[in-house]
Structures are given as structure tokens and as C-alpha cells.
Amino acid sequence: MFWREASVLDVAHKQFVYKLKAYINVFSALVGVQLLGLLFSLNPIGGSGTSSGGMSFSAQYYSGDIIVWFTLFWGFVVAVTLTQKGYRDIDFTFVSNRLSHHLSNISFLLTTSLIGGVSALCASVLLKVIIYFMNDPEVTVIKDSYALQEWILGVLVIALYLFLLTSSGYFVGMLVQLNKIFIVILPAILFGFLILELMFGGAFVSPIVQFFATETSFLLFSLKVLITSSLLFVSSVFVGRRLEVRS
Amino acid sequence: MTVVRCENVSKVYGNKNGTQALTGLSVNIKENAITGVIGRNGAGKTTFLKTVAGFLRPTQGTVKVFAENPFHHIKVAENTVFIDGTMMFPPTLTLKDILQEAGRFYKNWDVQLAEKLFSYFALPCDKYHHQLSKGMKSTFHMIIGICARSPLTIFDEPTEGMDSAVRKDFYRTLLKDYLAHPRTILLSSHHLNEIEDLLEEIFIIHQGENRLHLPVDEVKNYAIGLTGEKKVIERICKNREVLYKREISHQYIYVVVKNDLSNGERVQVEGDGVKISAVSTEDVFIYLTQQKEGGIDDVLERS
Amino acid sequence: METEILSGHIEVDEKMYSQYQLADMFNINPATAAKGLNLLADANIVYKKRGLGMFVSSEAKALIIDKRKSQTLGKLVKEIVKEANYLNVSEEELVEMVRVEMREKGDSR
Q1: ipTM attached to this prediction
Q2: Number of helices and strands (H, E) in chain B?
Q3: Spatial distance between the Cα atoms of B209 and B48, rounded to a whole number of angstroms
Q4: Which terminal Cβ of chain C has fewer Cβ within 10 Å, N or C?
Q5: How far apart are CA B184 and CA B178, in angstroms?
Q6: Among positive and negative, which fits the CA dihedral C39, C44, C50, C53?
Q7: How far apart are CA B155 and CA A197, in angstroms?
Q8: Alpha-carbon distance A232 to A169, whole Å?
Q9: What are the angstrom distances between the C-alpha of B51 and each of B3, B23, B64, B185?
Q10: Angle at Cα C64 formed by Cα C18 and Cα C66, nearest 5°?
């Protein structure tokens, strides 16, 4: 029987399609998470009231931010899950090598980020519709733009944040696979930074958040995210280079 | 032609003080032959096979599979199928789905054979992998292993949990498909007598080392059993390696020695009233992998 | 295999089964089957025709009968004699036993 020359990209592509079919429950989880976010969003985030001359106003604010936060959390969890032994072994049941395994995972995470972005935005629209009907339509003000361009921008921004989160999740997951001690170390580092953050008034975490959040140019923002994510993925591949499978 | 070449391969799990699974193992596996990988529990069979498949990284030594280092090599991966009892499948796919997916990964995949075997062994199409019994799982894995028609096909204890009828069918299927599509097959098992007819070569691993690697017929003639009076036997065994010894009575004794008697010696030995008997490959395997001298009888006698 | 030739299922100069057919028939590895064929060739029971495979030789039947007589039957007789000695069965007794057995077999035919 002849040995064949193989291509990593070819195998990675097959694995990617396999994952889309096999990990369909990732997306049903997304629906669950966003519905939950939607439920929480039905509580107004703030309100104010004034009264003058026998008339009283009260205003309540609603926001779909919770849905996005939940979606980001979901992305992180999905990425960590993909690095777990069971999921790795599923890949290596059929044809796979390290690189094709990572490449197909990254493509899968990119896809989940896009889908997450689209559905998060759809969920916030749904939220607005619900709130509109829950309250008196006459007095409900929807602060929104209906321009298609802004919609696409909104989806992309959420998707990029998601991609950033999944790449961090993937890196964290790989570190844990390398050594279980990271399960203790990583949260310790995180809390350490948060405490320092509180003590020194925003010296550590804030710059990182601001690096992304305050960027006003979409192009620069996406560049920042893509470069950071790529670095994280490359590090993940590097961390996992000696990892054995099906052992 | 050699497909698998191992030179002085050692494997230690975990850190330096971890379990040593392979200790300086060297072996060459012939192309397009069925080789039986035989060993006691914990002898290092699985470690050897997984190293060959590129799943594990040897601690020392070199492994070459078709002239490449197999550890995560895409060419080796594309040309290898590795079947064992711990194969993982997504819980969301039915057996039929999985078969279809498997077909996309292996270029030589035989769709029709897969379907025929699937229905012959009465596997349920719309069930999920985790719902199967141990024997059914093994049957399912075996179908993948055969239909993949990989140039390097590895079966690690493929018959676990199968009943004897299915086991027989499996061996027959494997042989027939091999006759039609010769390929390099590594087959590990505890039951040497069950698979020996199927094999071209036997590779015995003992304590992580290559204990014996010979064509089957040479293993069949590897040793002979001698039964006779103690004094006579002891004289014959003087300059020979005794593989096994059992006292039948005070005077009579049964020993197994390496079969290096010339025809003249044979006649002479028989003339001394010693009965010469053949030793099955299974027994050769057992004697070669005995932990200490003597067998279970010695343990029982002491207590 | 030999039995197949003896019983006349494969005639003289007829093509012998290939190692792959044999492997399939007896459920054995083809390499083992090839070795078996080589043994037959060494004993001149079959002969090779280049590129065509193995053929049954003209003296195959006689050779097999000869071989079985000297090897299989000879061995069995040796065993019988050995056993007879253990049991103190005399030569006449043993020969008589063989005669009776042969006669019975003849009758039943």
C-alpha cells in the first residue's frame, strides 16, 4: 500500500468541518447563555425620577451589555474546553497532528466568535423589542441606530472581543494541560493583580483594558485584537508542542 | 522493506522517577506483514504501539516510521490508523455519522465494506458511541480499523469484550481484507494461540525490551519439551538454557529447552528413553516472559 | 494439501492453489502458506513454472504415499510398539490386534 504525502491544511480543514458537526452543542449552549443574559437584562440598570408641580417623571434605563458579557464568558469557556484531554483525543482518533489540531481549533473558535457576535447583537435587538412591548410604547425611547454599517460594526466589535477572549481561554487551557499547577497559579495571579489594582488605583489592569476599550479607530482596534490573539495562539501551540495524546 | 524502525527506544512516563515502560527496545517491522505484538500485562505493548503511531514521545532512542520521526508527523498520521478500546468520539454524533466522518479522513476508506460490516455485526445506526457495550464498541472500532485500509494499521487489544464468534469473524475479515489489500499490520493481544495463524511474525515484548522477534514457524520450532528421568534430563540440559522445568514425580521431570539439538542428538536422546514433544508458541511466550525461574507450582509449594 | 492430491481432487500437472488461495482456504497467513508450498516443492510434490505458479508433479501421489508411510505411519508404529512394551503385550498379540482391526475395516467397506 502506498504512502501518501499529506498536507496539514487539508487535514485541518477536514477537522474543522468535523468540529462544526460534532460540537453543535457549543451553539445550543450559546443560545442558553444569551437567553439567560436576556432575562437578566429585563431588569432596568438604573432609574431616576423627578417630580415638579404635581407631575412626576420616572425614567428607567435598560441595557443589553449583560448579554455581551455572558457571550464573552461563553467564548472563554468554549476555548478552555477545547484544550481538554477528551476533546484532544477526539481529534486524534482520526488523522491528526499537533498543528492541524490547533489550526482546526483556531478556525473553529474564529467561527464561534463570529456566530457569537451576530447572535449577541440579535439578542440585544430582541431585548429592545421585548422592552418596547413590556412598557407603554408611547413613552419608550429606543436609543439606537438603524444603519446597516453600524450593525456590521457592532457585530464585528463583539466578534473581535470574543476572539480575544477565546484566544486567552485557549492559552489558559493549554497551560493547564501542560501542568495542572496552573489551575492554582492562574487565579492567584489574577486576584493578585486585582488587589494591586485596587491598592494602587488602576496601575495594572486598567492599561490593558484601556489599550483595547479606548481605541476609537475600528481598524486599529481590530489590528490590536488580531495581533494579541495571534500571539496568544502561537504561544499555545508552543506550550503544547511536547504534549502527548491518547495516553 | 522496513516500515517501522526502533533503535534503543526508552520511554519513562512523567518525570525522571516515573514508570519506565520501554527500556532500550530495538526492532524492525517488515512492510506488508502482519506482526503480532505479544506481551504480558504491563510489558510495554501499548507504549510501543503509541510511540510508533506518533502519540507518545520517546524519552530516548530513535523511532522511524517510513523514514520519518512519527511524533506528530502529518505524513505518518495520514497513513496510520490506531485502534484500541479507548477511542474517543463526539457524543453528539451517531455511529452512522462517525463512519461517514471517518471516511473523509482516510483516503483508502471502503464505504461499501464499512456498510456491509456494520449491518453484518448488527450495530445500531442511530445509537451513540457511549451507549454501546464494551464488545459492541470494540466491534465498531474494528470496522474503522479495517475499512481505513491504512498502510500502517495498528490494533491494540482489538478484541476486548468481543464474544468468541465475533472474534473469529474479526480475524477472518482482517485476513481476507489483508489478502486483497496487503498492508503493514501490528496486532497486539494476550491470546497468542488465537491469532498465531493470522501472523507472519511474532514480536514478544517483555519488561519493555525486545524478547523475541521471529517468523511464526520459527517460534513454533523455537523450543522443545523433554520428558524423562531426572538424571538423564539433567545430563542433557547441562550446557543448555532451560526455559522451564517442572517435576512430574521424584524421578520424572519435564523441561523445555531451546531447540538446538542435531538430528543425531535427537536419536540419542530418544534412545535414552526421553520423550521429545513440541512446545506451542503460546507456551514459548509464557516461558520466555516468566518473571522468575519456576512457575506457579513453586509458589504453591512454599505455602 | 497432500490429502487433496491423494484423493485426486487436484490432478497431475494441474495448477496448484496459490499461497493466497491457500491462506483464504485455511485461514492462515499467506507467508505461512508460501512456506508450506515451498516444503511441497522441496519434496518434489509440486513444481514451479516461472510466472505461472505451482503445478502438481507426476510423481506427487507416489511421493506423498511414500512420505506418509515412512514418516507418519512409521512414527505411529513406533508408538504402538512402545506402548505394547509398557503393557507387556507380546508381538503375536499386537499383530493379531492389527489383523482384526484391518479385517473389520475391510468388512465395513
Answers
A1: 0.84
A2: 12, 13
A3: 10
A4: C
A5: 9
A6: negative
A7: 56
A8: 9
A9: 14, 13, 10, 15
A10: 160
Q: Identify which of C39, C43, C5, C36 has the alpha carbon closest to the alpha carbon of residue C21.
A: C36
What is the SS3 assignment for C64? helix
Three-state secondary structure call for residue C39: helix
User: What is the rounded CA–CA span in Å between residue B79 and residue A5?
Assistant: 9
Minimal CA separation from A100 to chain B, in Å: 8
Instruction: Please list the pLDDT of chain C residue by residue as tens digits (109 residues).
Output: 556 555 556 666 677 778 888 888 888 889 888 888 888 788 777 777 776 677 777 777 777 777 777 777 777 888 788 788 888 878 888 888 888 888 887 665 5
Q: Give the residue from chain B lying closest to C31, CA to CA.
A: B200
pLDDT tens digits, one per residue of B172-225: 999 999 999 999 999 998 888 889 999 999 999 999 999 999 999 899 889 999
Distance CA A233, CA B173 (A): 44
Q: Where on the phi/psi map is residue A44: left (φ > 0), alpha (ψ -120 to 50), or beta?
A: beta
Question: Are B197 and C20 a contacting pair at CB < 8 A?
Answer: no
Determine whether A51 is exposed, middle or buried from the number of CB atoms within 10 Å of its CB (0-12, 13-18, 19+): exposed
How many residues are present in chain A?
A: 247
CA distance B251 to B255: 13
Residue A141: all three cell numbers together: 425611547
Residue written as grid cell 458579557? A69
- Interface contact A93, partner B, CB < 8 A: yes
Element (H, E) at A195: helix A182-200
Among candidate residues A233, A216, A218, the one with its CA nearest the CA of residue A164:
A233
Strand partners, B245: B255
The single-letter code of the amino acid at B122 is A
Helices A148-178 & A65-82 angle (0-180, nearest 10): 40
Q: Is C67 exposed, middle or buried (0-12, 13-18, 19+ CB in 10 A)?
A: middle
Q: What angle do CA C83, C85, C91 make, to 5 degrees?
A: 105
Classify each residue of B136-169 as buried b or exposed e, where b means 16 or more C-beta atoms within 10 Å of its C-beta: bbbbbbbbbbbbbbbbbbbbbbbbebbeeebbeb
Query: CA-CA distance, B45 to B189, in Å (whole number)?
Result: 9
- State the pTM of this model: 0.84
Instruction: Give the amino acid at A92.
Output: F
* CB-based contact A90:B88 (threshold 8 Å): yes
> Do residue C31 and residue B172 have CB atoms under 8 angstroms apart?
no
The Cα of C28 is separated from the nearest Cα of chain B by a number of Å equal to 5
**How large is the angle between the packed helices B164-180 and B134-147, nearest 10 degrees?**
0
What's the grid cell of residue B89? 468520539
Contacts of A33 by beta carbon, 8 Å cutoff, 6+ apart: A70, A71, A73, A74
Q: CA–CA separation, B242 vs B224, rounded Å?
A: 10
Polymer length in residues for chain C: 109
State the number of CA atoms in the 13 A half-sphere of A37 facing the CB. 27
3-state secondary structure of B231: helix
Q: Flag if C32 and B175 touch (Cβ within 8 Å).
A: no
Name the residue among A24, A90, A97 with its Cβ closest to that of B73: A97
What is the location of CATH 1.10.10.10 in chain C? 2-60
Class of domain C2-60: mainly alpha
Inter-residue contact A64 to B40 (CB < 8 Å): no
